[in-house]
Amino acid sequence: QAAALQTYNNELVKCFDDLCSKREELSLQIKLEEEEKERLQHDIRSLSEKLSRVNESLAQKMAAHNTIDRTIAETEAAYTKILESSQSLLSVLKQQAGNFSKTSEPRRKEH
């Protein structure tokens, strides 16, 4: 019986030592993963801040782009109106010049 108790005791000590080794190994893995988790959380915070800055910059640039598009469209419309007015003015001036030429021509004497 003493030999059996000694065998059980030896197995118990071995199992206990194995559990202690596994605990140490798991503790090391936990520590490493917690460190990795901290790095990842830091990276996420950093990237989130960067994303926020990029989104803000993008929104400002898109607003400026839209303003420029609107200004270009308004300028083109105004320029088209100027061209149309210039054409109308030119037509009126040509017509008036033609009328003036007709009234200022010397009349021919009829015989």
TrEMBL record:
One of its GO terms (cellular component) is centrosome. The keyword Coiled coil applies. InterPro entries: SSNA1_fam. GO terms for biological process: axon extension. Residues 16-57 form a coiled coil. Keywords: Coiled coil. The keyword Transmembrane helix does not apply. It comes from the Eukaryota. This is Sjogren syndrome nuclear autoantigen 1. It comes from Hippocampus comes.
